[in-house]
Amino acid sequence: MLASSSRIRAAWTRALLLPLLLAGPGGCLSRQELFPFGPGQGDLELEDGDDLVSPALELSGALRFYDRSDIDSVYVTTNGIIATSEPPAKESHPGLFPPTFGAIGPFLADLDTTDGLGKVYYREDLSPSITQRAAECVHRGFPEISFQPSSVVVVTWESVAPYQGPSREPEQEGKRNTFQAVLASSDSSSYAIFLYPEDGLQFHTTFSKKENNQVPAMVAFSQGSVGFLWKSNGAFNIFANDRESIENLAKSSNSGQQGVWVFEIGSPATTNGVVPADVILGTEEGAEYDDEDEDYDLVTTRLGLEDVGTTPFSYKALRRGGADTYSVPSVLSPRRAATERPLGPPTERTRSFQLAVETFHQQHPQVIDVDEVEETGVVFSYNTDSRQTCANNRHQCSVHAECRDYATGFCCSCVAGYTGNGRQCVAEGSPQRVNGKVKGRIFVGSSQIPIVFENTDLHSYVVMNHGRSYTAISTIPETVGYSLLPLAPVGGIIGWMFAVEQDGFKNGFSITGGEFTRQAEVTFVGHPGKLVIKQRFSGIDEHGHLTIDTELEGHVPQIPFGSSVHIEPYTELYHYSTSGEPQPCPRYTVTRAGSERRPAPSRVYTYQVAQDNHLPGMPASTRQLSGDSVFVLNSIGPVREGSPDALQNPCYIGTHGCDTNAACRPGPRTQFTCECSIGFRGDGRTCYEVEKTRCQHEREHILGAAGAADTQRPIPPGLFVPECDAHGHYAPTQCHGSTGYCWCVDRDGREVEGTRTRPGMTPPCLSTVAPPIHQGPAVPTAVIPLPPGTHLLFAQTGKIERLPLEGNTMRKTEAKAFLHVPAKVIIGLAFDCVDKMVYWTDITEPSIGRASLHGGEPTTIVRQDLGSPEGIAVDHLGRNIFWTDSNLDRIEVAKLDGTQRRVLFETDLVNPRGIVTDSVRGNLYWTDWNRDNPKIETSYMDGTNRRILVQDDLGLPNGLTFDAFSSQLCWVDAGTNRAECLNPSQPSRRKVLEGLQYPFAVTSYGKNLYYTDWKMNSVVALDLAISKETDAFQPHKQTRLYGITTALSQCPQGHNYCSVNNGGCTHLCLATPGSRTCRCPDNTLGVDCIERK
Fold it and tell me: Residue 467 — very low, low, confident or very high, per pLDDT cuts 50/70/90?
């Protein structure tokens, strides 16, 4: 399936390559050969500016587009698009493709006509001269079609400039593009004609406001969103979206005239996709080609999530050849002249190709590479989804999965405690039920009359932690029942689905999520004919059951009434293969090698099975499925010699004794642990069901009231349903699927003030509930002493890890845990270089703790009157700690042991987070990512001289660090995706790097910044000197990373007025530039304390 998909755009690629080799008739298209345009032709003119959309251009006749025939108006945009419905404001600039609106894009890019940088003209023209010229263009591309338009829309982008963004590209200065789109419509069909004159495309990339870098333009069509209750992406076609292809638009053609491209966009033939013309550039009038010897693959692959793993379907709407038939276009090798005939059947270097037209529905990200054409050395790569992200595809994941963005798209993965492929997830270790229907048409023995049955029930019960599955088919006709007894393949696939996973290997459900099709052929040795088994697995239904439909057709030998069948233990080999392209959620094909089994009734029948399962999955390799007896014990693992009994771990052989609602976790040799499944508690040997949480009850109530209790399906638009995490608690980030707004909630599901973000931006919300502690050996909480040297310390939920530094290089192989505190969620980290002590904030209890790098038990120093302590900083000279509290909206100070607390600020704070000190100068800095007014503030350490340091061009300023050696204040922003720095004594700021994923916290050491990233779950090194990311460390445990700090081997030089004798203060000594202030703690009634400056 993927092999054929890899050649899907070959015809289009050939067309783009041919101009390099062939000269078209008449040479390049001149600007004078464009359709007439301008005010003299009655054109309307789009207002000058950036990202503008015209008023509706009302049409005299309907435009047809894909399967629609009722489009009576269009909209013209600055950005090279003709829209069939008004683009929403949030999509005014190019971003995710496909857009939600219908789009025709001759040069889809971020274009700019501000201050007269070019013009955009548009009109509908009914004049005979224009309609006739459009008809001639269409006829050149589709010579077999008789087409006479009654209406023509002419849109011209004349000398438009590229949007260049904040960093202007010198090579684009003065570059201008001119191109034209013509839409011609009759009563029965519509065509698009794109014209690119010589020297009309002087630039091929523009700055993307979303990607924050230069991206290629695109030639594409999109149907827009479809559906009534549940909106989803409709069909779309991308014909060029890399630099080389765009450069060749003016040099090539699909209509025989250089620079002119013709597409059939609306007719009965375009229901599933736009059809391009296929007249090869250089074709002479009357030239004919014999393509009988060329081998073309007419199968395309639908990339819809609803079709993941389905068998390919025939794509007929390629080119018209008659009333109901379509012929394949003639595609020439670049090495053959236009008049040459193919020299023979394809060889290794003359491969089969597909037409470059395909329909996509709710697609997985996939990069399709066109195979090299002979020895030209040119290969074009197309990204078919244009960076689909979690922002608008989160609903495709299971409610028990998280969604992550990758460079090539998004991917769903089940959270801890659940297993599956991310789209479908079930609790690990929980029993599973499989329900479905079976129908059949079977010839028994030598009978010429088939036995037919319909609507027969199939039920299977799977004990996941034993790898046992029991399958029954009810009400089978008695005349065929005994003859079906040997057919283990009917239910055997369920054994593969839920086989016990050996370490590093995945069963079928972890790969497919129970969504795939399967076909098997069973042949009996010595018996003519075969039996074909077709099965479609449709995932988890609203009752939590896996659904399956089975069809049996063919011949089986007759087994006498009353016979019994015994099947010996067996093994099956499953081969996994993929295209090898790096993809976040790639597609794989699974084939099972023939296997031999010997049922033993009164006579022996030997049968063989060959099957194909089409599904997404895992790296290319071979897996062995071992079956103890039919429909019972299954284990998936590596191919091994000899008996599967060699696998002695009780988890693999089913002798562990774990509760049926528990997962068996294999250890070394024969060691194992039992762990209760999500929703159950106990020691693993005995598990009991726990009551549902408040979040789960609220979710079920809302879904039930809306009649949408199926948790695996999309939520009806307009309905907000709270998200619960893997343990039933409110997920810290809640989003409204229809509006796109997201916000943070507390542990009771209440919205946290000031956290609501606009669509497309996710607030950095923190989980306030620690994950449950799994049963098993107790993890020691004592600190593991650090070796000498400088280390990075970073927090990962319930632990702190250390990462040694050698110079500025992360010694990743030496990373180890420093401290385990599994009942906490550690957010902020700070280090005292004097006592070698690390301090942290915990938002679960909440509390503030500390531990020595030299070892020993951690201690809690603050646990009263805290809301959500997040950022923490140490003044190593004044011997104080400072912290932010985003729940109480305040900043506090205390001595290093947590005593003598004093509130510094409790006004004009909404979401304070990062906080750092400049101990030598006595300054304090902090961030507030308040969505209405994000800012970075500063004050003296005593709270005086408070002022805003940075307020403009901030999004979600999370992390903050101050480098005492260079006096640089740097921060990372998850809203602008930037790292920036400034010297607080100077007004200018420097953008260090753009395009960060989702930075959370940051620290500095030497020439580097080191930040934690939520999307990559990594610590990333950023070289300040060259503004480039140089390295990244990804911990073994893939969970969210929080605070990070540098554990210095020695303190920076310097002192302040609190360094000696506590500055002469009785209690708190708070440094200021060139002085200090003595302050009393809050609530010091009766305490002998003296305040003075």
Answer: low
